[in-house]
Every structure is written in structure tokens, then in C-alpha cells.
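fyi for ur records
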Amino acid sequence: MLSLSRASFLQLAGAVLLSGAAMAQTGTRMHKRKIPSTGEELPVVGCGTWQTFDVGTGAAERAPLAEVLRILFEAGGSVIDSSPMYGRSEGVVGDLLAAAGSRDKAFVATKVWTTGRDAGIAQMERSFKLLRTDRIDLMQIHNLVDWQTHVPTLQAWKKEGRIRYLGITHYTESAHETLQSVLQRGGFDFVQVDYALDDRGVERRLLPFAAEHGIAVIVNQPFGGGGLLRKLSGRRLPDWAAEIDCTSWAQILLKFVLAPLAVTCVIPGTGKPEHMRDNVRAGFGPYPDAALLRRMIGDAGL
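which gave:
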């Protein structure tokens, strides 16, 4: 757990959305934020597929996942994040999008997770087939694995239009320094990183760096790997939850990580329609200001 220093907090607060009428979302489509490298707007809440989309071919297994995606799109969301590491998830996503005819509604993100140039190319070609698409919106180097080898291939594919954006990921604070050093080399549109109310290391340098250098940020593990949400779910919602239009702890945790403008999108993973319906509400309404962020940290006992 990390406590914000005064300097870090003030730096972060300078890039926070202020709550109020100017930021209220009254329509049926969630907030969007710009991808710095192009200005394209991306909805702020997406869907992760780790474990949750790793299912078989049975209709009973897949029907809830089809509903998860329908709810995401209905709310104005688009980002679906997967990886070859996630078992059958890529294939399930591809099948569901094809069956619903909804590929054009999705911003499809996946990853390369292997070593060696040829192995990387083979793995990514398989991802295209599984996802049933001829263009992947965001290809990311998963957990920094052999990133030096994969970058030239991805840069070439981006020029050819096979991928639209290039990113790199990790899920632990111990990798943040390495991530920043890789991003300093240039050429990356996105970084995907861990961030939660009880995992705030990204606030120290990586979020300010991404904001300064025009790199979009996708947040994974916004519920602290699930443990934080389980810990808080038995508690009564604080009175201030109404100030940011939150009716659940999940929405509070998602709005916490969406408060900094440097964060482009958050991708809570779920295979349950009721959880997706809850999550997308974090894409609407006001976000915490600096004072409320301090209260959120204090009231959570972190």
C-alpha cells in the first residue's frame, strides 16, 4: 500500500476531473476520453476477459457472456481486452462478436505473450483468426515479455494497418520502473497497468509520465485483484457515494481510478451480466475531486 506524498498528490490532483454539472453525464452513452496519439475517443469502461471468458462451446456457458457484451455496447462501451494467456477467451470473444454482428461496436485489444520473432508472429496470426478480424485495434506486449523482439513486427504491422495501436502491459507495481523506461523509447500509444484504491503506486511517476508524453492508460485490476472489493462489499456505502452517483462499491472503486484524466479506460473483468450492468454505471456522472479522493483513501482505511 502506498500513501501519496504531498507533491505526488498535488500533481495527480491537477489532472483530476472535478465533479459538478460540467462533467455530469445525462445521456445513455458513457463518458469518453481521447487517445492522445490520435485524438480518437474511447469509452472509459471496458471489459476484461481473464478467466471469465475462458469457457467451452456450450450455449449455457456462452449466453451470459453474450449478454455481458450486449450490456457493454448498450451503455456506449467498446473496449474488450484479451490475451493468448487467457485460455479460450480470444476465440470466445471472436465467436460472440461474429454471432451478434457487433464487431464494428468493439475496440478489440489483445496481446502477444511469447518469446522469439517467429513465435510472436505465429501467436498474433492465431489471435487474428480466433478473434475473426483482419484488424486488431490494440496489440499489446504482455507483461513486457521479449518486448525488444516484438516491437519491430508491431511497428511494421501498424504501418500496414493490421493493428491500429501499439501498447505494453504489466500488472504489478514492481514493473512500473521498467515500463516507464520502455515507454521513454517512444512509439507506444498505450500502457496497461495495475491501479486500485489499495494499489496506488502508478500515481507516483507512471501516470504523470503518461500524461506528459501523450500515452493512453488502460487500468487492470481496479478491484485490487478482487480482494479489495470482497473486503468492502460487506460495508455500508459511505454518504459521499451519492456525490458521485455511486450505488455500489464496485462503482466507487472504478470511479476512483477514473478520477485522473491520465486514465483513458478501465477494464474490470466479469462474465456476469449483473456485474457488467453495475460496472458500466461508473462511466456516467461526476468523478471524485481531490478532496473526495482523500476521503476515499481514508474511509477505506488504506
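The two ends are 7 Å apart (CA to CA). thats all i got for now
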